Amino acid sequence: MTPSTSPSAEPVRASRNPFFRTPLRKLLALVVAIAAALGAVAAWQWWQDAPLRDAEAELARDNAPRALALTEYYLDLHPGSGRAEADRARALSLLGRADEAIEVYKRVGAATTDELRAWARAHILKAEWSRAAPLLEQALRLSPADADALYELTTCRTRLGLLGEAIDTAERFTALPGQGARGNILIGAIQADRGNADEAILAYKRAESLAPDGLGLQLPPEEFFEQYASLLLNQGRDAEAIPLFERSLAARPTAATHHLLGKAFARTGDVEAARRNWNAAIELDPAGVTPREELANLALVAGDAAAARESIKPLERLAEHRFESAYLFQRLAALEKDDDAFARWKSKADELRDLDKRITSLEQLMATTPGSYWAQAVRAHKFATLGNWQQAADLINGIEKTDEEHPFVTDLREAVRTRGPLPALDRVPMQQF
Fold first, then answer.
1. 13-17, 108-112, 420-424: lowest mean pLDDT where?
2. What pLDDT score does 131 carry?
């Protein structure tokens, strides 16, 4: 029996059917052509973007000059590239060219954690803490465990007097792997600002246990040991402070540390050791104020008017503005029985003492109620006094203006706007807080 040769008995084959053969081949050819074209475009784009990839690699290595050169070369060929502009801004921020970086970010924005941190860093360089903080908060929403962002946000909050919020981010930073010592220093400094001396000392003790030689911290060993010792000294734990001050001096002698060590020795009754350290402080810094005051006090206690005058004579002009020096001149006048000088220096010392008490009260206000109306106004005044006019403006403009605004705040607004003379702090109504 021969096989059937009817059309229905043979399978349909695409290769023999023109309907399947020609359109499919054309379609496949088109797909291949499109893929090849897209591949060529991608390859061309990849090749063109090589300078940007190199720039970003240099930024990762903190080689800002090379990164800036590469991004500017790319922008010459591709003006308006948002990615290139953002990379250029990062390089400018790393180079300390804060104003230029900020202007770029205002145009192109920031999309990544690195870009947000670079933008914030530019504001930090200008001490514009209230502008840097929101950018760092945004960076942490993208990368909650970013150590640099946590550290920098803690710094911003501390500078703005937001100490409770600063403790929160400092504790998050401290919990990160490898950040225990540095984080405890942050916590200790903030707790000291909050007036929690015991908590501050415990934090520094934890930091020392993690970094017993004081190395690998955010500050040099001499500063770490001096800060730790100063906390102990302020709490009357003088004997514990002495070896820490001595470790600070062994790392690097400074006039400030000699002065504080002398103070610790004086409190423990070793007056000669105190005198040696105060003289050493003056040798390192002949313009030093506090060691001269300490030596003058020793002389006055001993009834030696000549030695006292020799110590404080260089401070006479400063005494017009500093209570401690003015009071020493008052005591010297009493020892020398100079009634006119005594009356003049007593009046000056009383005036400066009252001013110091007011400033202390205002500092306590800023620490305890940082978000209050008067705390914000006083902090704006403080930033303006330090010459940080932009941060002062940000703070004073953050206070809502009303028809019942206190004249001090109104005058402060105008002084900050014009960068003119600031209203005196004695106009702050202390009775209101």
1. 13-17
2. 97
Buried b (16+ CB within 10 A) or exposed e, 312-321: beebeeebee
Task: Compute the distance between CA of residue 347 and CA of residue 98 in angstroms, rounded to an integer.
Answer: 47
Contacts of 112 (CB under 8 A, 6+ apart): 142
Three state DSSP letters for 307-330: HHHHHHHHHCCHHHCCHHHHHHHH
DSSP 394-432: HHHHTSPP-TT--HHHHHHHHHHHHT-PPPPGGGS-GGG
Sign of CA dihedral 144, 150, 152, 154: positive
Question: Sign of dihedral through CA atoms 223, 319, 305, 287?
Answer: positive
Pick from 55, 93, 92: nearest CA to 71: 55
Mean pLDDT for 229-234 is 98
CB 114 within 8 A of CB 120: no
Distance CA 221, CA 174 (A): 19
- Give 1's DSSP letter: -
Is the pLDDT at 44 greater than 50, yes or no? no
Q: Is 270 helix (H, G, I), strand (E, B) or coil?
A: coil
Task: Give the integer Cα–Cα distance in Å for 422 and 302.
Answer: 43
CB hemisphere CA count around 207 (13 angstroms): 28
Contacts of 395 (CB under 8 A, 6+ apart): 130, 376, 379, 380, 383
CA atoms of 43 and 173, how far apart (whole Å): 42
